[in-house]
């Protein structure tokens, strides 16, 4: 079995838990059930995009908003709105581009802000992009405070034979090989 299949199956329990914890309310007419603020259900779409290659040959990660031709890079200090899931979850949306990911690549997102707010998400190179992989995604948060913090992305590979290991303490998969990293400072707003 190729290593990528192991990665996808190894991720299924954690990804299902994330989706279940942030899924919509059981009543389909219940749009925006949360009284805590804006409510939009999180989804991740991953695609290969045709965009200008960065200079150099090293893999590159860029944070932004929008997708495809409307993608714009985020600058340090950019503001992200906290969204509230119908079952109490909190998250914010971001688009991430990764240039030259390996076909078995894994992109790990983590957010650290204040003293207690953390968030994460994991994205697999399912389409097998060789140029730009673009993920319009979300970062699930532990709690939703107005604050500043840092969004970090690490792209790389996991062990070819054993797949990704999952660290319960950080709620993150662990890369065996890191190929690219990026950070952006964000201001989260309720």
Can you walk through the features of this model?
Strands 1, 2, 3, 4, 5, 6, 7, 8, 9, 10 and 13 form an eleven-stranded mixed beta sheet that branches. The N and C termini lie far apart (45 Å). This protein has a single domain (3-25, 33-189), classed as Immunoglobulin-like (Sandwich). With 190 residues, it is mostly beta strands. The protein has one helix and 13 strands.
State the separation between the terminal residues, measured CA to CA: 45 Å
Largest sheet, in brief, is:
11 strands, mixed
What is the global morphology?
globular
Radius of gyration of CA atoms, rounded to a whole number: 16 Å
Give me the count of strands. 13
Low-confidence stretches: 1-36
Number of structural domains: 1
**Percentage of residues assigned to helices:** 10-25%
Strand content: 35-45%
Task: Tell me the structural class.
Answer: mainly beta
CATH top level assignment: Mainly Beta
Helix count, per DSSP?
1
């Amino acid at each position: 079995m190729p290593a990528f299949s192991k990665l996808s199956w190894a991720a299924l329990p954690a990804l299902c838990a994330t989706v279940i914890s942030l899924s919509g309310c059981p009543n389909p007419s219940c749009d925006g059930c949360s009284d805590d603020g804006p409510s939009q259900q999180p989804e991740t779409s991953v695609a290969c995009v045709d965009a200008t290659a960065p200079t150099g040959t090293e893999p590159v990660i860029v944070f932004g908003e929008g997708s495809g031709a409307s993608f714009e890079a985020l600058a340090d200090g950019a503001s992200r709105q906290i969204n509230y899931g119908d079952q109490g979850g909190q998250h914010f949306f971001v688009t991430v581009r990764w240039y030259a990911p390996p076909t078995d690549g894994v992109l790990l997102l983590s957010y650290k802000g204040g003293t207690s707010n953390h968030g994460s998400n994991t994205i697999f190179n399912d389409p097998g992009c060789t140029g730009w992989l673009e993920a319009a995604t979300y970062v699930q948060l532990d709690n939703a405070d107005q604050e500043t913090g840092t969004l970090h992305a690490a792209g790389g590979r996991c062990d070819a034979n054993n797949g990704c290991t999952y660290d319960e303490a950080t709620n993150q998969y662990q890369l065996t090989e890191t190929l690219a990293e990026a950070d952006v400072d964000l201001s989260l707003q309720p």
